[in-house]
From TrEMBL, chains A, B:
<dbReference type="InterPro" id="IPR010982">
    <property type="entry name" value="Lambda_DNA-bd_dom_sf"/>
</dbReference>
<dbReference type="InterPro" id="IPR046335">
    <property type="entry name" value="LacI/GalR-like_sensor"/>
</dbReference>
<dbReference type="Pfam" id="PF00356">
    <property type="entry name" value="LacI"/>
</dbReference>
<dbReference type="InterPro" id="IPR000843">
    <property type="entry name" value="HTH_LacI"/>
</dbReference>
<feature type="domain" description="HTH lacI-type">
    <location>
        <begin position="2"/>
        <end position="56"/>
    </location>
</feature>
<keyword id="KW-0804">Transcription</keyword>
<keyword id="KW-0805">Transcription regulation</keyword>
<dbReference type="GO" id="GO:0003700">
    <property type="term" value="F:DNA-binding transcription factor activity"/>
</dbReference>
<feature type="domain" description="HTH cro/C1-type">
    <location>
        <begin position="3"/>
        <end position="50"/>
    </location>
</feature>
<dbReference type="GO" id="GO:0000976">
    <property type="term" value="F:transcription cis-regulatory region binding"/>
</dbReference>
<keyword id="KW-0238">DNA-binding</keyword>
<dbReference type="InterPro" id="IPR001387">
    <property type="entry name" value="Cro/C1-type_HTH"/>
</dbReference>
<protein>
    <submittedName>
        <fullName>Purine nucleotide synthesis repressor</fullName>
    </submittedName>
</protein>
<dbReference type="Pfam" id="PF13377">
    <property type="entry name" value="Peripla_BP_3"/>
</dbReference>
<dbReference type="InterPro" id="IPR028082">
    <property type="entry name" value="Peripla_BP_I"/>
</dbReference>
Length: 338, 338
DNA sequence: TTGAAAATCCGAAACGTTTTGGAAAAATGA
DNA sequence: TCATTTTTCCAAAACGTTTCGGATTTTCAA
């Protein structure tokens, strides 16, 4: 592997000059620069990023810390879409992405900042970690620039991008209300997700503004899991036959709910209306097609990467809130009279 | 950021001793080792991987070079599943994954080996590149350990993992033959994919063994794209009304074909049977559910990572061929008597 | 021609590790 | 006690780059 030294020797100059020639400094004559570049090309030289990073004290690397890279997460390819967005932006820069994964216990033995400092990443993007994750407290304490996805924590070193969860949920519930539903349940995620709290709030706001009483026992947690949601929904609808509509905090859970309804011989949307959240790929393919609140996951990743690079270039951490959109499909209908 | 030097000073020993203590060498007394470890913990030390990599001449990093990280690739989450498999294996090792992306023209300005050498990756996994990609020739020429996915190229430095494409395709076509079909078309990918060639061969073998004549004009290329496949299928089925079944080299193309058939008011599977390849998530959700050849993409990634790490530890490159499985769903039926 | 300014170049230190070859200290055996 | 072995430690070089401060050469105006 040829180094800067080899080039220097071949060109009869010092390593300093080679370095400065290759990096476009002005204090090297065009003649020698040309010679050096030619020789570099001829010797098939590529710079050693490790050495450079070491001395420059920045690695031109960002860490991507996601939780959703599991076998089971392929259905809801939220993680993948976010990653794609990140990748898309980063590809336009001179940074590279290094993948940390949080699912393995192996990595879990290291703390967040250990993970980052060992690899000397310049910044991190975090997605999918729970609010009680020890990593989270570390993020704010550490001085590594960081942008969070769907976690509203901010400091001068950490920004975040999220969607208008409260408003999105509100729109979904209002849609149900407009269809005449009054007995509306909610399948929420879990207490360790900010989005759950926010979507619950949206649910509350919509109901209260419409002067519809809220039945607390009609709000259950499905842990963002299809199976769990199915089980919970089965219980709920057997015990509470008056429910005519349910708002789910994720499409995956909505699928679970629909499975439960099928088992109970309740038709969607004739007997009960279902609305989801996310607009995952499957939403438009299941039958009936799912009414849902769409969020642009690709853009979330893209914006996160953009913000992080901005921060690395000296700008300050921001908050980006993307708009959601209610997509009405076939799983919601007017409430039955009587 | 505390370094090994700081620890040495605090402990009153040399950096050598600190290094050797921390790395578990035997030539340091338990007493001093304990002291050093305590101080390291207390100073919140984490080793600088860059410096280590530089001197050790290995980065404990593998490159992941995928082509499918695009917005349009979310439907067919082949790439994501492979990545998940890779990630799953790597998580158990002390390696990290660095993400290269081939779609950006920015990166494309660098050659394959430049990409790898700059970041000093110890090895690479390549997925989704075409057979005419200039990267490919570089792979074999370069001396970087590499494992390819679905590309049958082998040397002492490069291995690959793939599935039994010929046999898989053969099973799919045989299934159609057993249902009584004789007028069978094929929607292939493109000429720059090995899997296309192999699946075509499987198609041929099945037909020939059953003594069914092959109509070359019934084999068309859909470029692995849903839209392209839809257009091609539309042409094909308007011009050739005798076709009763079609084998597609990917599920995504099968979806496109089904769209075309719907437009032409041909029912699946009553009028024409469709079988796909891959078993993507959507396959079981579309209506009618798609009969297809399932391949375990997660395992492909997992095996690839496993092989690569093996190679980095001195073992030689291998070839791993995974089995596929025909999954019969609703899109295939017996040919109409007519 | 001369002096100053501008243009080129370079030596050496630094970044944070690992490793080599040996030195010093302690333990052991006679 | 002394010689020998074993244990424990260390100085210095090396990895490949960047950069600081200064040195040398060239250019140019007077």
């Amino acid at each position: 592997m040829t180094t800067i030294k080899d080039i220097a020797k071949a060109a009869g100059v010092s390593v300093t000059t080679v370095s400065r020639a290759l990096n476009g400094y002005s204090d090297v004559s065009e003649k020698t620069r040309k010679k050096i570049i030619d020789i570099a090309k001829q010797l098939n030289y590529s710079p050693n990023t490790l050495a450079r990073s070491l001395v420059m004290n920045k690695s031109k690397t960002i860490g991507l810390l996601v939780s959703g890279m599991t076998r089971s997460a392929v259905k809801d390819n939220f993680t993948f879409e976010v990653m794609t967005g990140v990748n898309d932006y980063i590809a336009k820069t001179d940074y590279d992405v290094i993948l940390f994964n949080t699912n393995s216990t192996k990595q879990r033995e290291k703390t967040y900042s250990q993970l980052c400092r060992e690899r000397r990443v310049d910044g991190v993007i975090l997605q999918g970690i729970k609010t009680d994750d020890p990593y989270l407290t570390e993020v704010v304490e550490s001085d590594i620039p960081c942008v969070l996805i769907d976690i509203p924590i901010q400091s001068d070193r950490v920004g975040y991008v999220t969607t208008d969860n409260v408003y999105g949920a509100k729109k979904a519930v209002q849609h149900l209300l407009e269809l005449g539903h009054r007995n509306i349940a909610m399948m929420n995620g879990h207490d360790y997700a900010f989005v759950s709290k926010q979507r619950l709030q949206g649910f509350y706001e919509a109901m209260e503004e419409a002067n519809v009483p809220i039945r607390k026992e009609w709000v259950v947690n499905g842990d963002f899991s299809e199976e769990m949601a199915e089980a919970r929904a089965y219980e709920l609808f057997t015990n509470e036959p008056n429910i005519t509509a349910i708002f789910c905090a994720s499409d995956l859970m909505a699928l679970g709910v629909m499975k439960a309804l099928k088992q109970l011989h309740l038709r969607v949307p004739d007997d009960v209306s279902v609305v989801g959240y996310d607009d995952i790929l499957l939403a438009s393919y299941v039958s009936p097609a799912l009414t849902t609140v769409a969020q642009n996951k690709f853009q979330m990743g893209y914006e996160a990467a953009s913000m992080l690079i901005d921060m690395l270039e000296g700008n300050e951490a921001k908050v980006v809130t993307l708009r959601t959109q209610l997509v009405v499909r076939e799983s919601t209908a007017e409430v039955k009279k009587g």
